[in-house]
Specification:
Layout: H1 19-23, E1 30-34, E2 49-53, E3 63-68, E4 71-79, E5 84-87, E6 96-97, E7 104-114
Antiparallel strand pairs: 1-2, 2-7, 3-4, 3-7, 4-5, 5-6
Amino acid sequence: MASGLFGISEDHLEKYQSLDERLIRDRAATFFFEASGEAMSPLIMEKDILIVDRSIQPVSGCIVIVQIEGELLCRRLQITDHEVGLYAENSQHTPLILRDEQDLQVFGVVTSVVRDILPRATHVLGPQRKDGFR
C-alpha cells in the first residue's frame, strides 16, 4: 500500500531537494508575500508564504497579487469577453468585477504556496535527538 509520501523512500533519502530549483522560475522576478485574511481559504491560509512571479503573464484562472485602489489583494483572476473579475476562494467574499475606470495593477502571479505546519505545542514527547527524530 502506498504511503502517500511523494518521493520519500530509502532510495531518495540522500537526494537533496532544492526549493529554489523547484519553486522559483525567475529569481529576479520572484517575490514572497505572507498571506493575511481568510479570503483565499481554504487554498491559501493565514501566514502562508506566497511565491509570486512578476515575469509570468497573468491569464484567466490564475491567482494574482493585484493593487486596486491602493490596496494589495490576492485573488483568482477571471477574464471573459465582457469583464474582468477578481474572485476569492472563500464564498463569503464578494467578487470584485472591475469597472473601466478602476485602476488595476497586477503585481504578479502566485506560483506556489508554502505552509508551516509545525504545531505550536508546549507539550513534547520525550527528549529530542540531535537528528530531529524521537
